[in-house]
């Protein structure tokens, strides 16, 4: 990762629309109740983005000391971005990490499962980032790795304006429990997304086969074999070849 990579803050969390309610998790029973409710809510989210927004809201609601939260992701092990955050302050802090190429979010994505900084005003691990974060008003941070999938990484990051905000052991324990539930929910949502894409691709390939069968008097197997051969000849994904045939009603140039 290099300095100056583009930061994409695609969406600010709207607390008013979340179904997870704020409460002070002052007792184990309160925490258990909120965690159970959050887990059920996450399982109901078919879209990855909806699951991520619910996780961010839940983090601010139930992790002691957390004033703000965000989800950082790296796609293809290339570019870190923060698509979901509870406050613009999170976007600014994460922008600093990307620009300076150091910070807890980057460490948790690439190196460790949990990263905690009790006071960024006295933090030797990321001196340039720590100084910038303090300028922005953040003194404590805690980050958890959420998932690693095919080169894609995700992390849950918590922020506070107060030093020592996450000193309570409960903060890390509850944060880790939340991250575990979140990782399961994200994995489920990603599987659903993969299945949806697979079904869509199958339908596209089926339509293209039908066109080839009609135009060239081919059997189903022959039409599919022709698609595969065109894909290999042009070094193009099968679904892209099929999409071209559907849109243009002819085979791609150089594929025949």
From TrEMBL:
Gene3D superfamilies, per database record: 3.30.450.40, Winged helix-like DNA-binding domain superfamily/Winged helix DNA-binding domain (1.10.10.10)
Biased composition (Basic and acidic residues): 8-17
Region Disordered: start-end pairs: 1-27
GO MF term set: kinase activity; RNA binding
Domain of life: Bacteria
Alphabetized PROSITE patterns for the sequence: ANTAR
Residue stretches making up the ANTAR domain: 185-246
Residues passing through the membrane, by range: none
Keywords assigned by UniProt, alphabetized: Kinase, Transcription, Transcription regulation, Transferase
Protein name per Swiss-Prot or TrEMBL: ANTAR domain-containing protein
Organism: Jiangella ureilytica
